[in-house]
Amino acid sequence: MAVIVLCSNATVVRAQTGDIAQFFAGAALGLGAHEAGHLVFDVAFDAHPGVRKVSAGFIPFFAITHQQVTPVKEFTISSAGFWVQHAGDEFLLSRRPNLRQEHAPLAKGLLTFNVVTSIVYAGAAFSRHGPVERDTNGMAVAADIAEPWIGASVLAPALLDGARYFRPRSRALVWASRGAKLAGALLVLKAATRE
Fold first, then answer.
1. Which of 150, 151, 132 is nearest to 55 (CA)?
2. Is the Cα torsion angle 77, 79, 81, 83 positive or negative in sign?
């Protein structure tokens, strides 16, 4: 009897470990997609991307850097990670509106990364704290908008997508989320007035 209990517990532990690994793989996928968004536009604009070590407080990290570009290009490059996150969230929440009820640790890890990353960036924008290379600072400088407003434009879609995860049948949340994403992307037009 004890052998059966131990074997069944080992199976549960393996399944949980696999779920945790898949969740973190989803988060890693989100990080890779966010950074790839920056790189796509760095290359498209011939901005000569590079990597530089930075730190956010006591946390060492890296930043993808590039040469100085026009305000529209800077706004686009700095925003691209968020645009990729928004597109990924929209894809997940539109195709799988009941994601919360599904056993989908990879997808949940990706969505969690996207939402939490936007919240962290918004906090940095509100406090104007962190490395100068932070995305929200690049967006703010390029569009000549106070960084806390950029933080709000990043935070709103994240909070709305988080709410959509918990309330998938709310059409108001779906359209508010999409509107917030579009409004944030349209700030590139503000950057265009600086050229």
1. 132
2. negative
Two tokens at 104?
A: 């989908």
User: Based on the number of CB atoms within 10 Å of its own CB, is 120 exposed (0-12), middle (13-18) or buried (19 or more)?
Assistant: middle
Which pLDDT score, from 0 to 100, does residue 11 have?
56
E-strand stretches of 46-182? 50-56, 59-65
Q: Residue 21 in contact with residue 102, Cβ under 8 Å?
A: no
Exposed/middle/buried for residue 9 (C-beta within 10 Å: 0-12, 13-18, 19+): exposed
Tokens of 58: 């006591």
Pairing status of strand 59-65 against strand 50-56: antiparallel
Mean pLDDT by groups of 10 residues along the chain of 195 residues: 48 75 98 97 95 79 89 97 98 97 98 98 94 94 97 98 97 98 96 88
| 54, β-bridge pairs | 61
Tokens 């000549």, residue? 144
pLDDT at 115: 98
Phi, psi at residue 57, to the nearest 5°?
Answer: 70, -125
